[in-house]
What does this fold into?
Amino acid sequence: MEKTSEILTALQVLKEVFGYQSFRPGQEEAVNAALQGQDSLVVMATGNGKSLCYQLPALCFPGLTLVISPLISLMKDQVDQLLANGIAADYLNSSQTFEQQQQVQNKAIAGQLKLLYLSPEKVMTNSFFSFISLCRVSFIAIDEAHCISQWGHDFRPEYTQLGGLKASFPDAPIMALTATADSTTRQDILQNLRLNRPHLYVGSFDRPNIRYTLVEKFKPMEQLCNFVAAQKGKSGIVYCNSRNKAEKVSDALKKRGISAAFYHAGMEVSERERVQRDFQRDNIQVVVATIAFGMGINKSNVRFVAHFDLSRSIEAYYQETGRAGRDDLPAEAVLFYEPADYGWLHKILMEEPESAQRDVKLHKLEAIGEFAESQTCRRLVLLNYFGENRQKPCGNCDICLDPPKKYDGLMDAQKILSAIYRTGQRFGVQYVIGVLRGMNNQKIREHRHDTLSVYGIGKDKSKEYWQSVIRQLIHLGFIRQVMNDVGVMLHLTESARAVLRGEIKLELATPRLSAIATVSSPQRSAVTNYDKDLFARLRFLRKKIADRENIPPYIVFSDATLQEMSLYQPTSKAEMLQINGVGAIKWERFAQPFMAIIKEHKALVEPAKKPLSQ
It folds into this structure.
């Protein structure tokens, strides 16, 4: 298809300003729609270049582009990145003083800004409309657009007021963007924003560079610490469902000598900002956080995301794991899971008043529970949930790389079901296992369960072994968990009768009892055969420059850009500008010290490669 003059201009901006040689899937269509004055909804996975879909048109339009985002932390991050590329950008939000906001508004009125980032709350004030009427607004982008939908996983009712923007700016095309929206959510976004015959782009939800792994919790703190230690200093995020747990996990990691800090909404704003800044600048390795952190983190070199607790929805899990591997290099997403996590979330949800919103949350919780308990390719579960119908296993998740080994589990199941029945179906997992293993404790003696025929019949297996088998019997529908004020009790279902009578065959997965959450198969890097020694030297230089400039290292150059430099080893301006991520401004501002190290490295390495003269 022949390219329009507008899209050719945008491609030139992409190369000269951002340093990328071509569009990624979906970008060209989204940019072209905006440049033709058309409204649009862009659904694009994190890390696939969503921000460029509105940043490129913003640089091609003559006036100001408004970017509305609920993520205050992301605003500064994106503005810093735009400034590093020589683009006039700023933001307005509650973190600024009145005087600072006035300075930004004056720049916008004077036509000195191309992009202005705003929070939705700011847009809904009368003072905003008084100010913005003095500016020439050419284009509006609404990021994290799923927040406007009652079907989205992060619905914020006040955001529905953004539907009034179309009437206020009838001549400015509006682009709504999100990384996570199923078909129902997409329709709700379009309706609430009142977009006019919009262009719709729904990209692939697949992030093939991310490996998805689920680890059964046995000794969860030890398992998590072992996993993080095995990452050998790589940047990562650990998500927890409570502030208290985030602090405890952070302390446990620090005791293992790992550079970690916690982050949650109960902290002082200045302390949260310090933790986020230190993480972005590679001064700390791991942030242990509640969902208050990371939705808008733009750090490109996060190599792993671990969930110490179950997320409340697949959308939340997908978005949180999407913080990893934004640079397209290999990354890990590890979920530590036990059925009690699901039971706790379900109990909390059912305590809410009955409403349509509670029903939506319940549906989403059930879906993430099914994902955690799946014995099929994890990526297929995720993609099919979002309506991206696929059947071929991915080859890069724990199920594909290390398929569950099966064994005849009928006798194990009979032992467990008998123990639940004979103890009166009034106890939880740990008590039933205690009876099976013949534990000599006061509670068992008080109930005289040490006299039962099932007492001690499972003492040849570990507690973790029986935990795994009980979880499988729950997943298979032979046991159900009943939660009350005392705790979670195990009950037999009607299907358990056939197992107890030995009327069916029963295959179970051999329990995996490793305390280290890793999969042995190595991941291939997106860029292969690059010089690892040179890459290490370039990373060291990047950190020095970033500290001097007071910006995060990835704003200087991403890991992917440094890997390309280490592979192609450019030694001239023309060669350096062919490296993805090196634009004209970054060439002038940062590139020459990197080129000097490359030249020095080649001078040292190449003589060593030459054969000795005869």
